[in-house]
Amino acid sequence: MRIFCDFDGTIAKVDTTDLVLHRLADPAWEDLEERWTRGEITAAECMRGQIALIGGTEADLDAVLDTVELADGFCDFVAWCEANAVSLTVVSDGVDRFIDHILGRHGLSHLPVVANHMVSDAVLGRRLEQPWSRTGCAAGSGVCKCQVAVRDASPDTTDDLMVFIGDGRSDFCVSGRADLLFARDKLADYARARTMPHHEFSDFHTITTTLAAAHGRSARRAAI
Question: Are 130 and 44 in contact, with CB atoms under 8 Å apart?
Answer without folding.
Answer: yes
